[in-house]
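Thread: "does anyone have the structure for this chain?"

Original post by V.I.:
We have the sequence but no experimental structure in hand. Need at least a predicted one for the grant figures.
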Amino acid sequence: MLRLYDDPDSGNGYKTRLLLALLGKRYDLVEVNAIQGETRREAFLKKNPNGRIPVLELEDGTFLPESNAILFYLAEGTPYLPDDSLGRARALQWMFFEQYSHEPYVAVLRFWARHTDKTRENEPQWAERENRGYDALGVMERTLAEQDWLLGGTPSIADISLYAYTHVADQGGMDLSRFPALRAWIDRFPALEGYVPFSGRLRATDDRMA
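Reply from O.Q.:
Generated one for you, tokens below.
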């Protein structure tokens, strides 16, 4: 059986948990606390030398880190990954966008708001990250104003990758009311067969999750 090393409050981990649920795949969940240094211990570094979650352990004992790589692996041969070369490249295009133009802003603001004492008033980088986050949401809005899903008429791993932190962007103080197409896209997810909600939870001050 598949085994996922993850934490319930990780949006990157939620991507994986959501796709596993949509595909109806069974797996064991092993919770890992990064803030307490568990991802920096020798046993975990053997699974992922980069010391980050999530990590998916395959049935043969192979370890696969990086959330978007995991999505790509799991989606192979399913409706969530296009069969044609351009479609697959478009999926990767959005997933690279998520990691470089979206997650560093939208996800970081959420983490600061939920797990640190940083605020818009005391964090010098807050305004810039918020503006860059809105820029990323604007890119998505323009695409979703023309079609239901990021690749067209059906959901894909591109959507799952970006849904994870987008639909909880308000937890970082971001206002989604200005993005009607984006909000309609968010509202489509719960209707997908197998959908599971993000069970993110706050931790004690000395027990935070990155």
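V.I.: this helps a lot. Strands lie at 2-6, 27-31, 55-57, 63-65.
O.Q.: and The CA atoms of residues 35 and 209 lie 6 Å apart.
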